Amino acid sequence: IEEGKVELVDILLQAGADVNQRPAKYRGATALQLTAIGGYIRVARKLLNRGASTS
């Protein structure tokens, strides 16, 4: 996600990755928050389509 790799995100989502997980490694930031910071619009759209929380 940090590099905006859409294909990798697709694989993770298909494998059942939790789009709202808040890993300690990223100080509790969600994948959607990280994509917003990085400007990865395509990845953000995929996460939102899979139910990523905006709050």
TrEMBL record:
Q: Which UniProt keywords apply?
A: ANK repeat
Q: In residue terms, where are the ANK repeats?
A: 1-24, 27-55
Which InterPro entries does this UniProt record tie to the protein? Ankyrin_rpt, Ankyrin_rpt-contain_sf
**SUPFAM superfamilies listed in its UniProt record:** Ankyrin repeat
One Pfam family it belongs to:
Ank
List the protein's name. Uncharacterized protein
Source species taxonomy: Eukaryota, Fungi, Dikarya, Ascomycota, Pezizomycotina
